[in-house]
């Protein structure tokens, strides 16, 4: 399997997870069961979807769109992201989405940071409250463009991509964990090794950013990966939803993505089954499934995803990621 195949597996895995979770995002697990049963395929968002009302099946959300935006900035900056430019692009992106009629597309941390920048606060100050999963959801291109084999340089690249909106120990450590799994996968590490590396890099990265209270990302990932349910998928889903949690808090949603990735690493479920469980859990389903899809795709490659579904996501969103992914790999 080539590095290109793994990188495409990561970026299209992110888009597929995002699209599977699109109709269920912000719903409780009980509401998802009542409306959809279990998610096993791409679904339309109904008229009462709180964030994505009436979006057609296969539609991506802000998770994939902001990851593409970060990828484009990395290529323009030859591997580095100028925080001021990222802030400006996010502002323009939100304005463009609102013009199309979409509301509430920026997560709480990103929204707050952008409001602070527009009010004249420094870029350094703007991200000091960002603890949610917004940096982790759009970090995949950094994992493709930067090689985790040089950890210090790698963490610098992650910090640059996080600083504007998520300049905190939790925001940076969770994004670094996800990016490291993607980068390790592209280097040919198997999934278990890649997850180990994600955990290690999270620990190293948490010395960056403003300290905020909350369970440590590396410690919570380590614990979540040790969950053993003897193939009882219903019990696993209960534990993820009730005990870890599926909110936008990075120490919940990002940790759930690692717990599900571990189940794939120990052959308890296939990559696609794990994405479907992520999309069925409740809470921030599109982001959990997007992060999971990126991490799994990097180790397992593009062929781990159903061809027809990837084609449907490409067609619905007019999505062509090949040139972007090749540009990011060239930076590596």
Automatic annotation (TrEMBL):
Positions contributing to Mg(2+) binding: 61-63, 284, 286-287
Cofactor: Mg(2+)
Keywords: Hydrolase, Magnesium, Metal-binding
Name of the protein described by the UniProt record: ADP-ribosylglycohydrolase
Source species, domain of life: Bacteria
A single GO molecular function term of this UniProt record: metal ion binding
Homology family: Belongs to the ADP-ribosylglycohydrolase family.
InterPro entries listed in its UniProt record: ADP-ribosylglycohydrolase, Ribosyl_crysJ1, Ribosyl_crysJ1_sf
SUPFAM superfamilies linked to this entry: ADP-ribosylglycohydrolase
Cofactor note: Binds 2 magnesium ions per subunit.
């Amino acid at each position: 399997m080539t590095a290109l195949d793994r990188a495409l597996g990561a970026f299209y895995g992110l888009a597929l997870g995002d699209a599977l979770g699109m109709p269920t995002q912000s719903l409780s697990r009980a509401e998802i069961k009542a409306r959809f049963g279990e998610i096993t395929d791409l679904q339309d968002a109904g008229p009462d979807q709180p964030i994505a009302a009436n979006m057609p099946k296969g539609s991506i959300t802000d998770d994939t769109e902001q990851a593409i935006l970060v990828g484009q900035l990395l290529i323009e900056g030859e591997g580095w992201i100028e925080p001021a430019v990222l802030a400006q692009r996010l502002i323009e992106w939100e304005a463009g989405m609102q013009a199309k009629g979409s509301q509430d597309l920026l997560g709480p941390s990103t929204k707050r940071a952008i409001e602070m920048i527009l009010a004249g606060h420094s870029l350094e100050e703007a991200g000091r409250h960002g603890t949610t999963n917004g940096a982790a959801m759009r970090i995949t291109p950094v994992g493709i463009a930067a090689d985790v084999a040089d950890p210090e340089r790698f963490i610098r690249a992650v910090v640059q991509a996080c600083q504007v909106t998520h300049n905190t120990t939790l925001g940076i450590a969770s994004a670094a964990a996800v990016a490291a799994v993607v980068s390790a996968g592209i280097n040919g590490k198997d999934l278990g090794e890649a997850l180990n590396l994600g955990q290690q890099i999270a620990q190293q990265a948490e010395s960056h950013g403003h300290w905020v209270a909350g369970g440590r990302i590396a410690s919570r990932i380590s614990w979540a990966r040790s969950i053993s349910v003897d193939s009882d998928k219903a019990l696993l889903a209960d534990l993820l939803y009730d005990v870890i949690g599926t909110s936008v808090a990075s120490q919940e949603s990002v940790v759930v993505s690692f717990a599900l990735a571990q189940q794939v690493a120990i052959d308890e479920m296939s990559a696609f089954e794990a994405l479907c469980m992520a999309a069925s859990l409740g809470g921030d389903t599109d982001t959990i499934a997007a992060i999971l899809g990126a991490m799994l795709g990097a180790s397992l490659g593009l062929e781990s995803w159903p061809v027809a579904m990837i084609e449907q996501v490409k067609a619905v969103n007019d999505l062509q990621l090949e040139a972007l992914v090749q540009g990011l790999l060239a930076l590596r």
